[in-house]
Structure prediction request, 658 residues.
Amino acid sequence: MSSDSSNTIESVLQEQRVFMPADEIANKASIGSLSEYKHLAELAKSDPDKFWGDAARKELHWFEPFNKVLDWSNPPFATWFQGGKMNLSYNCLDRHLNSSKADKEALIWEGEPGDVRRFTYRELYVEVCKTANALKAIGIKKGDLVALYMPMVPEAAIAMLACARIGAPHSVVFGGFSAEALRDRLIDGEAKAVITADGGFRKDKAVLLKPSVDSALEGNACPSVDSVIVVQRTNENVNMKSNRDYWWHELISPQSAECNAEPMESEDRLFVLYTSGSTGKPKGVVHTTAGYNLWTHLTFKWIFDIRDEDVYWCTADVGWITGHSYIIYGPLSNGATTVMYEGAPRPSNPGAFWELIQKHKISIFYTAPTAIRAFMKSGRTVPDQYDMTSLRLLGTVGEPINPEAWIWYKDVIGGGRCPIVDTWWQTETGGVMISPLPGATPTKPGSATLPLPGIEADVVDAEGKSVEAGEGGYLVVRRPWPGMMRTVHGNPQRFRESYWEYIKPVDGKHIYFAGDGARRDADGYFWVMGRVDDVINVSGHRLGTMEIESALVSHPAVSEAAVVGRPDELKGEAIVAFVTLESGRNFDNALINDLKVHVALEIGAIARPEEIKSSDALPKTRSGKIMRRILRALASGEEVSGDTSTLEDRTVLDKLRA
Ligand code: WT7
Prediction:
């Protein structure tokens, strides 16, 4: 098993520091002690139906009650809360309107240029109703898929909630993806409409989005798409096609401010979100209504220990699962105030995050280790200029956090007083799976600590047997949970094979394999080591090496390509590509640059290789499989260790070394 993460076994074994939960957090927290956590975990384990059923009834509003908690008679296809009817948008909005939350701020949005918009729950409700009516007006019906390709503007949140309200599943495509990547997703999901914007602001300038939508749809490439709704954000000139394109403001302003939330079946599709795997094209991860609502609601409440006066900010983009679950659905279902920011720290404003924390008196802050490492590198002078005493809780997500970055985050950003929740989860899990509970769990820097109540996580070998403490293995979940993905859109077989049949226990049970390697220490704490498949994690963004390889070989100069991750101090991993060229091609700087641009156009700037190397041949086994282990070692300047006897051509290694 290989791993390219910063949590090496050495650092895990050396890490001795333990931080106990502070009394003032524990006293008010929803789970306020380790024994309370253990008690809940025990209840969930001994009678899961009662545990989840009680939680679903207590935490959510139902139009009609469910009559069965879990049906696991046809694994790995789970059915949760059968017979129940509910609506996520109702749970995020309507149910707060009869309480003091009605006039509480639901969403505070800050644009990159510094413009601010605020929405109370009542105001957000009105915007969502109008947008839901607008979607109906252009012919969107329950069950139709609506794609979003948007910058971080409030309309993105409004559009998602409006889709949920009328029962039209959404498929958010990260605004940094290329027109090609957008087109693939529109075709795969058979989207009926696209909601986009003229553009957004990035690094102090307007970046256009609408032209990518035009290009994705060109020549009727996506015949299912009938309409495009365009938010005016930058006021840049964009083309509007008649009978297809509508301006958001023109379409929405005349609509009625009332729109009943559609009663949805528990298992009705809520959204599809594409993510990279080790083989094939990105897969459309399908999440459904009730289980996802319950899981994001509960996890948000438990992990962020939310209180009515909190101002919570997650720095993710709505194009990723973190944005779905922890900017929008989890916080709003709990009636919290959530902050959304269009920008990012940049040379003209390196303190952008800290300025926002000071300005909006943010109390809970959730970001990625890659950002923390970048801040750490530039030192504490910038953060020290801001008043961040409003903070009381810090979180991280997306990749393993190295203990030094964890300590820096706690001391410099958290002023030494804020607990850190290192949350392990994935697009597929819907919400967090392994994380400290701030009032209950003693933390160790670099460890995501313990699974949440109801989550039977384990570290196992290929037969599904638990490995000894301290040993490496596959990170798995032994039982279904409400927020789990239900299938891969259009490809149930892939869902079965890649997640539930990868580990093969002798008793034939289904175990969920996450794609990560991990260890548990003697206290049962989980230390996630990173991906063990051909997926790389660049600055918290997940990319399949095969997608990047396909993009490279689609360039006329490239005959073969292999892509690996190299450990990188800031990004976690950096992309290194090995290519063999078509005869007569010269490997010069112009071509290298051309290939990098080509990958960015095919997938998006996040997939642009850091380094491209050329060679006459790639190391392969006799059956033709590229030996990535060798390339990984070469890319990171390490000795090639282990067995190389299966290499088809031993001279390749010497050539690559040269
Ligand atoms: C992969 C999932 C879930 C939100 C963001 C990414 C890695 C995520 C952690 C963590 C170590 C982590 C895993 C996982 N990952 N959180 N706290 N510690 N690794 O979602 O794009 O679906 O990627 O991110 O490798 O499998 P995603």
